[in-house]
Design goal:
20% strand, Immunoglobulin-like, 7 strands, 4 helices, 4-stranded mixed β-sheet, rod-shaped, alpha+beta
Length: 242
């Protein structure tokens, strides 16, 4: 057998003297787990924020209790909280402190992105170039869509890591120019690949022949020999005439 009972409640504000309270407030009575609307009433400060939904069935055809809740309309600056079971038809509001959006510092990340785009990647490995390009892309997305400073800082850290990770391509050995000796620098003013003119062979100057000094006694001996020879010849001729 169904039983009826008057259902009533009250609106509770953090401060009933607050100047931003509405003049009137609509409150709905909801039934069951699907929160089916049963009725709606209006209350105000003049009614001390009290209201009554009238007499309602408190059990169904099977005698099971019916669960009711009350819901107040939205009020700017306030939010409704869950009422305790013993006050389930009361509407309780709390001040809604809407957090101000965090002011993000994007300056350093923007500077880093601009700097990264100017890096000469000509002699960098493909792998390190792709890593940098991906980090730049994510950094630009963070600049555009980030909602927290943490996202900005993480994008900056990843970009710095990608810049530090750039690697040079291994250099290929350079074949020497024909006629050029590997590992030697060309002589200034000389074209690469040309052989230097051979240096003229420097022959040692012949040493002057050292003639032995004349001995004055040699001349005397020669004159003696000649004189003696003449005497012998004269003596022989004289003997022949005799």
């Amino acid at each position: 057998m169904k039983t009826k009972k008057e259902l009533k409640g009250k609106v509770e504000w953090p401060d009933e003297n607050a100047t931003n309270l509405p003049k009137t407030l609509k409150v709905k009575l909801l039934k069951g787990s699907e929160f089916t609307e049963v009725t709606e009433v209006t209350t105000s400060a003049d009614k001390k924020w009290e209201y009554s939904f009238g007499k309602q069935d408190i059990n169904d055809e099977n005698g099971l209790p019916i669960f009711y809740t009350a819901e107040g309309e939205d009020v700017y600056g306030y939010i409704q909280t869950i009422s305790p079971l013993d006050r389930k038809l009361d509407v309780i509001y709390e001040v809604f402190d809407e957090e101000e959006p965090e002011e993000l510092n994007k300056t350093e990340l923007q500077k880093l992105v601009d700097s990264a785009k100017k890096i000469d990647l000509t002699n960098k490995t493909e792998e390190s170039k792709k890593a940098l390009e991906e980090a730049i892309k994510k950094a630009e997305e963070a600049l555009e869509n980030a909602t927290s400073q943490e996202e900005i800082d993480k994008a900056k850290e990843a970009l710095e890591k990608a810049i530090e990770g750039l690697k040079e391509k291994p250099q290929k050995p350079v074949d020497p120019t024909p006629g050029e000796v590997p590992g030697t620098d060309p002589i200034p003013g000389e074209k690469p690949g040309t052989k230097p003119d051979p240096k003229p062979e420097v022959k040692p100057e012949p040493k002057p022949e050292v003639k032995p000094e004349k001995n004055i006694f040699d001349g005397i001996e020669k004159r003696k020999t000649s004189w003696r020879q003449q005497i012998q010849d004269s003596s022989r001729n004289l003997k022949e005439k005799l």
